[in-house]
What does this fold into?
Amino acid sequence: MDEFLGIVGLFAFAIMAGALCGIIAIAQLSNLKQEIAQLKAKILSLELANNAQSHNEGADKSTDCSTAQHADTAQANSNKATFNQVSLNQPNQPHGQEKTATSAIKSSASVSVSKHKQSSKNLKPTLVTSLFKKLRSDFEHNWMTWIGAVALALGGIFLAKYSLEAGLLSVAMRLTLGGLFGGGLIATAAYMHYKNSVFEGFNNYIPAALASGGFITCFALTLLAYSSYSMISPLTAFVVLGIIAISASAMAIMLGPVLAVLGIIGAYCVPVLVNTGSNNLFALYMYIGFISLSAALVAHKVQRAWLWYLLWAGHLGWYIVGFTIANSSTIWLMGTYGLLSVIGLIAVPRLGLKLAMVETRPHSLKRLINVLPSHPLMLACITPLLLAMLFDSDNYLQWQIINALSILTLLFLVLKNSRWDLWQGAALIAAALILLSTPSYYIDFSDSLFIFKHPYGGALFLGLALSAYGLYFGIKWAPKRLAFHITASFSIFIIIATLYAIIPNHALTTAYPLWAVILLISSAILIKCAMSGATLFQRFTYWVGANANITLAITMLFNDSGLTIALAIQVLLISVLIKRYRVPMPHWPIKALVAALLLRLTLAPWTPSYDALTIFNLHWSIIVYPLCTALFLAAAKCFQTSQLKIWLEGAALHCLALFITTETSYQLVGHYPDFGSLSFYEQALLTCNWLALGCVYLHRARIAGSLAKLYQVAGIALASAAGITTLSTLLNANPFLNSIYIGEYSVFNWLFLLWLVPAGLVLWLYTLIKPLYTKAAPFILTVAGVLSVFAINGFIRQFWLGPYIYLSKGVSNAELYSYSIIWLLLGAGTVILGHLKKQLLIQKIGLGILAAVIVKVFLVDMANLTGLLKALSFIGLGLSLVGLSWLFQKLRSHANQA
It folds into this structure.
């Protein structure tokens, strides 16, 4: 019994929610009435006061003032009488007439209100405060009505329950009496509505409340008869519950949207509440279709948007549920249901039952995107069919036919309404997915005629049909609707490009001649159309499509990297066409194409098919990356005063970064970087590469405009990666700690790339980071100093020990003294440089180096001295440090004077 009480509670909640919506509407209308009454009363009093003041100012004007006073008073009384008459008749009028009456009252008072506008502003209460006051007042008046309705429904249920438990009457009689009670409530509500019975303060909610209680009673009693007492069969319960729900929806046309909510929710819940166990999907969809049709009629009559939301949720929800229980015998049923949903939920409400053409004028892209709810509903109907086709490989042919029919449906509806032009793009995507859904093991590539068979032959036919569709309707019917021209230009390109992407390399030689001929013929047709195009965008679209086809035909002569080069050439050709024809084209299509190219170029080195790829007997990255860099730079020159120039220059810079990062590692170790197991030499190269690129990105951020933040993030990310690599080298592959070959030559060895070059790049990074992140700048400068120390000491040690400099080999006296001499010279030179540049920081660094050298000389180099020599060494150390301190003070005073 508890589950039925829960169901009753849900219906009661739905009723209360609808009532709340109605109360809010009534509160807003009543608040408007009160405001108009207050304004009229105040205006009348102000008129009387003004007339009295005018009467006291002069007797000569008394006659005119008296006339004006009587006229205004008569007008006010007339308005008041009109307002009172409308107020008395208001509960019997429909919602539309309420608005008409209110508008009439506002119009009659507008002349007087305009005279005293400033005074009325001070008297107008805030809308929010008055709204909540009215809501509270209406709730205090109407809450007993709805609680009474729920109590009636519960009373009917409890009466039946009590009669069953007490054994007063038979089960059938008791349920019959309960049904009569519910039916009586419904009949009473219909009678009250027919007689226009009005109850003061209740706004005619009583009939709707009584009907709601009656329908809930009948609904619950039917469930009791089915589940608790097994008096009726599942099929009978299913039919009866459906009739009750539909009856509630039909009665909502008379009594308002509250019953519509009850009927729609109840109708869609019937298959959940009553499970016949047959899993008859056909019967279920027939029922849901009938319920959706009934709900659509009610929603159209009641004119409430949220009723449509309930309809869509219920209809599409059962559509998705159907896929969970579908099998091979119900595939056509699922497809029919999906396509009829497109017609019933989208086309019929917009086009009418005859699917008449409603709009053919062109629209901007923004308007085409913002078409609600047509686009979401179309995707909700078509997407499950596409997903089923992709994942149900056993029945792929049936799903492909269904999706081909969905393409025809979308293209047909596009002709009826130009606001749906973007559905041609959905049709192109569906066509490509139809091709991709065919399992490769069903295709016999040993048969040379496979290019004419399914799926290759079918895909070519579909591409040609889509292109012909776009050409015919784009030229004959709608020359200014750009979507048709895009379909004509790129359908064949997309289909053959998809075929090229999935075909095995050994079968490409068979298919290429046919595809190349089709692409070239299509290009010739598009060029012909471009020469006779009616609009600038039409000609531009055809030129781009022709170039794309020619480029793809050339690409297939090469290999995987050929497509990348072809797309990069396409970017340049589009840019040249835009510059030549001065096309005011939005930048986002070019940016999207460039972004796709950069993603392909970024992932290519780690794609298995590119491992041994060569072009003209050279490794592909040696040609592709520099060529793409040049193409992007050439395209950037076509946009001298455009933000797109910065975007294309950034793409060229990214290609250069990829070339430096990948090719250096490839030439060094014979493969691209494996970041999980980098060698010592790869780490040294990557540190230099990433630091250099990070500095270039940060430098470019200064002139990148709106892309400055993107460049800053990329630059800092690269610098951070270089820092992590450097730290890993110091800890795990440090030549001072491990036996690592660093080279035979002094200075020009691996220490040059490991520490010296990064030290210089970190100094550059310091100058770039300092204006952005002041607190991080000292840390970066310290890192540069540490790397410089490692580099210089490593060079000195390599000079004495050769290619291996690990510390366990020991240190000779000559090497020990050489450190002091070289650092002494470096410290003195640094002090002199700082003095010449008048940079106090450089002077401090130089003096610090000298101090460290002096400490090292006296404590390390002369550590073996004893007696007087040892004492003199410490005295010399003290004097040297004092002298350096005096020199520092002297230099600082000169700097301050300057």
